[in-house]
Amino acid sequence: MRPLYRTLEPAILALDLTPEGLRYYANSVLKARIQQVTRRAADDRHLYLVCFLAHQFLRLHDILIDSLLLAVQHVRNVCQRDHKERYYQARLTQRHTLHAMVTAVDQGWGTPLATIETLAFNPQLSAVEKVGQIQAVFTEGRAARTEAAT
Predict the structure, then answer these.
(1) Dist CA 92 CA 100 (whole Å)
(2) What are the boundaries of each domain within the chain?
(3) 40/48 Cα distance (integer angstroms)
């Protein structure tokens, strides 16, 4: 259809018809029977047929552009949906990681701190005994602190 349109393009441009004018002549051809079109004068018949071809060509372009826009919108929607899913999955993973880290810190640091606090305020222990037992608590938790730091 493109070669035919390219051949007729100078005539179409010379007619200087609006899209509504092209549509009017094209619809007349669509509604008419073949005998009605062939009975017209040659100049009129050519005008109607040129307008019909131009209108059909432009309509085909409109349909193709609409199809392209729909395909692009579909791809965009799929990408947005995929992005959302990945974002929520990353948030869930981050939440689980943070929870595991808080648990590790609580078990690795919280319990020794409570033990140290109990030792520090124990009136039955001397200062030397308190320091020795606190050092023992720190020595026990060294591995857990090293693991949490990495």
Answers:
(1) 12
(2) 2-149
(3) 10
Query: HEC string of 14-66?
Result: HHCCCHHHHHHHHHHHHHCCHHHHHHCCHHHHHHHHHHHHHHHHHHHHHHHHH
pTM higher than 0.85, yes or no? no
Residue with tokens 């209108």: 55
User: Mind listing the pLDDT tens digit for each residue in 7-26?
Assistant: 888 888 888 888 899 899 89
In tens, the pLDDT along 130-145 reads 999 988 888 876 776 6
Mean pLDDT of the chain, nearest integer: 87
CB 139 within 8 A of CB 116: no
